[in-house]
C-alpha cells in the first residue's frame, strides 16, 4: 500500500516579529505544496528521499542521530511504527515545489504532509491529530516553534494567530512572491528586534499597538471586499518592519521596483533576506520581469483553501 499526502506552504501577511511580543498576526496558506509518499518495505530501515539528499537508517534509530533536515521524518516514522505491529520498514519520499529556506513554510508543510502520509498507512488521523503530531515533529528541528505555521499548513486559508481563528476571505488575492536570494537568519532578525525593543521600549510598545490596530483594520477590509485598503495596510505594515530594522537595501529596492504595479508590498517572515510579497492585479503580472532585478526569482501565488489532503493506493 502507498500513502500520499500534500500540504501547502505559507506566508505571513501581517504581524511578523510583533506577534512574539503579544500582537496578532495573519498567516495564509499558498498554492505551492509539498507531497509526501510513504510505502512499507522489507528492509528493516527508515529511508527518506528528498531534494536535500537520501538517508537510510535502521528502524530503531533515534531522530537525534540524523541530520536536522531528516529528523522530523525519522521521528514520525518511529513514533507511528512503534505503536503498530509487524512493520519491517518504511520508505518516505518528499517532493516539494516550495522554495527551501526562504520563510515560506517548507519545513512545516513537510511535517504536516509527512504526518498525514505515514499515519494513513496505519490509521487515519483527524486534522487536529495531524496538527498536534506535526508540531511535535517540527520541534525536532525548531524547538521553539509556535505551531502557527503547521496550523495554517494543516487547515489552509487564512488564520488569525494566536487565536487560530479562520478568516473568511471574500476576495481573491493575487500575490507575487519574490525571493531576494539572500538567505534569511531568523535568529539574527529576532535578536535585532529584541535590541530595538531594549533601546526604545516606549516606541516598540507603540508599534505593537499600531500593529494590533492595523490587523483589526485588515480583517474589516476583507469583510468589506476592499482590496485597495488591504494593499495599503501591507505597505503600512512594511513601514513598521523597516522601523524595527529587519529590512535592507536589497529588499527596499525590490519593494520600490514593484511600486507602479503593486497595491501593497512588504517583507514576509523574518526579514534581512528571504522573500517579499506584493498584491498585484492579474493584468500587471506580465510586467514583473521587466521591473525586478534579473537575479531575483519570483512566482505568482493564490491563497490555498484546502490545507492538508491525503489518500491511499492499494498496490
Report on this structure.
With 315 residues, the protein is of the alpha+beta class. It has 2 domains: 2-166, Ribosomal Protein S5, domain 2 (2-Layer Sandwich), CATH 3.30.230.10; 175-301, Alpha-Beta Plaits (2-Layer Sandwich). It has 9 helices and 12 strands. The chain has helices at 71-81, 106-120, 127-138, 148-155, 186-199, 201-223, 227-243, 249-257, 288-291; strands spanning 2-14, 25-41, 45-50, 53-58, 89-96, 158-161, 165-167, 175-179, 262-268, 275-280, 297-301, 309-313. Strands 1, 2, 3, 4, 5, 6, 7 and 12 form an 8-stranded mixed β-sheet that branches. A 4-stranded antiparallel β-sheet has the order 9-10-8-11. A hairpin with a 3-residue loop joins strand 6 and strand 7. Helix 5 crosses helix 6 and helix 6 (201-223) packs antiparallel against helix 7. The chain is globular, with a radius of gyration of 20 Å. The protein starts with a strand and ends with a strand.
Coarse structural class: alpha+beta
The helix content is 25-40%
User: Mind summarizing the main beta sheet?
Assistant: 8 strands, mixed
Radius of gyration: 20 Å
Provide the CATH architecture of the largest domain: 2-Layer Sandwich
Number of domains: 2
CATH class of the largest domain: Alpha Beta
Low-pLDDT regions? none
What form results from the Cα inertia axes?
globular
Query: What fraction strand?
Result: 25-35%
- Write the CATH fold name of the largest domain: Ribosomal Protein S5, domain 2
**Order of helical and strand elements:** EEEEHEHHHEEEHHHHEEHEE
The overall pLDDT average reads 92
- Number of helices, where a helix is a run of at least 4 consecutive DSSP H or I residues: 9
The first-to-last residue Cα distance is 5 Å
Amino acid at each position: 500500500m502507498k500513502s500520499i499526502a500534500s500540504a501547502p506552504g505559507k506566508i505571513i501577511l501581517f504581524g511578523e516579529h510583533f506577534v512574539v511580543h503579544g500582537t496578532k498576526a495573519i498567516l495564509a496558506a499558498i498554492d505551492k505544496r509539498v507531497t509526501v509518499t510513504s510505502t512499507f518495505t522489507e528492509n528493516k530501515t527508515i529511508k527518506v528521499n528528498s531534494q536535500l539528499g537520501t538517508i537510510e537508517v535502521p528502524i530503531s534509530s533515534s531522530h537525534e542521530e540524523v541530520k536536522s533536515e531528516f529528523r522530523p521524518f525519522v521521528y514520525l516514522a518511529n513514533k507511528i511504527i512503534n505503536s503498530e505491529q509487524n512493520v519491517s520498514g518504511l520508505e518516505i519520499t518528499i517532493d516539494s515545489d516550495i522554495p527551501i529556506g526562504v520563510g515560506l513554510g517548507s519545513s512545516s508543510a513537510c511535517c504536516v504532509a509527512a504526518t498525514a502520509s505515514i499515519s494513513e498507512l496505519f490509521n487515519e488521523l483527524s486534522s487536529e491529530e495531524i496538527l498536534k503530531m506535526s508540531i511535535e515533529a517540527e520541534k525536532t528541528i525548531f524547538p521553539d516553534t509556535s505551531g502557527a505555521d503547521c496550523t495554517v499548513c494543516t487547515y489552509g486559508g487564512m488564520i488569525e494567530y494566536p487565536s487560530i481563528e479562520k478568516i473568511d476571505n471574500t476576495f481573491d488575492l493575487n500575490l507575487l512572491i519574490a525571493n531576494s536570494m539572500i538567505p534569511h537568519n531568523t535568529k539574527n532578525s529576532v535578536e535585532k528586534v529584541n535590541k530595538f525593543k531594549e533601546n526604545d521600549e516606549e516606541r516598540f510598545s507603540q508599534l505593537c499597538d499600531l500593529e494590533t490596530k492595523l490587523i483589526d483594520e485588515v480583517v474589516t477590509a476583507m469583510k468589506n471586499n476592499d482590496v485597495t485598503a488591504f494593499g495599503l495596510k501591507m505597505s503600512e505594515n512594511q513601514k513598521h518592519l523597516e522601523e524595527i530594522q529587519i529590512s535592507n537595501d536589497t529588499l527596499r529596492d525590490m519593494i520600490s521596483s514593484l511600486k507602479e504595479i503593486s497595491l501593497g508590498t512588504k517583507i514576509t517572515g523574518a526579514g534581512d533576506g528571504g522573500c517579499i510579497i506584493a498584491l498585484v492585479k492579474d493584468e500587471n503580472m506580465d510586467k514583473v520581469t521587466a521591473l525586478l532585478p534579473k537575479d531575483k526569482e519570483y512566482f505568482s501565488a493564490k491563497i490555498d483553501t484546502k490545507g492538508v489532503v491525503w489518500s491511499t493506493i492499494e498496490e
